[in-house]
Write a structure and sequence with these properties.
It is a single chain. The chain starts with 6 loop residues before the first helix and ends in a 9-residue tail after the last helix. The chain has 11 helices and 6 strands. By secondary structure, the protein is an alpha/beta fold. Helix 1 runs parallel beside helix 3 and helix 4 packs antiparallel against helix 7. A 6-stranded mixed sheet has the order 1-3-2-4-6-5, with helices on both faces. 36% of the residues are buried. The longest helix has 18 residues. Helix content is 41%, strand content 8%. The structure holds iron/sulfur cluster. The site of iron/sulfur cluster has 14 residues, from helix 7.
Length: 300
Amino acid sequence: MPGTLDPEVRRALAARIRYYNEMGIYDFYRQPVSDPTAAAIAEFQTEVEDDPESGRSGDVMTPRKAALVRAPVAVEETEFEIAVSKPEQAVSDPVSALKIIREDLGDCTRCPLHRQGRKQIVFGVGNPTAELMFVGEGPGADEDEQGEPFVGRAGQLLNNMIKAMGIAREQVYIANIVKCRPPGNRTPEREECETCSPFLMRQIAVVKPKVVVALGATAAKTLLSMNSSMGQLRGRFYDFKPAGFRNDAQSNNPNWTGCKLAVTYHPAFLLRDPRQKGEAWKDLQMVMKELGLKPPAANT
Ligand code: SF4
């Protein structure tokens, strides 16, 4: 049983957690730690979990599981509740919740992409209660110009893919792993993906789709935390829960506990190698079956 933290340390931790929240980070994971701050956070979390009032005694945290941090003293509890609750969790309306996440993102300078020529942040677009969500890699030149994901040539192909599934673009939600255009359309660095993707995770947790389709290796690897090839990643469903997701009574769908995730080729890759369109169609058919979708009749 760990000792109780010194009030000064506790206050310092509250300030540190608030700092992380301002960076868009709300989730803290138990890991083997060597640095004193991380060790203190881990000890603090253990205290909370051992607190019978927390109702979580003996709960073992696993990677990607959100820390539920509550302090036993009323005034500090308020301090920590404010610090660790994601602001969108206070509203049940998904449109308002997405707006809150966008406001939280602000004029983001959290990763190097903010100073590498972006014109604007490309947040995401579509139906806030979509059953199907597409996640790409990052904005290109057209997306950077228009502020909307998938509006260039790759976007046109994605629209055709969606139409072939028997639905319209307006029925799905579309976003990217990083929200600022990487210069020269380079692949975003891992650090950039890791810094930006918590906001995407929050968007997914608000939309609560039945299926997420990861478009390309960067999206798939970031969402699944796997470093496999496209050949290994495609052709099956994964059980997916956005990192840090916690359901609660205020949720717009309290029964949502996660969704399926499928991987297919990025439309930009399919433009470069159209021979792979048949493979992508197989992936989409798998998704259609899961969602009960039928392709449109030939004359529509
Ligand atoms: S890519 Fe994401 S984390 Fe990086 S500056 Fe843009 S919005 Fe912020």
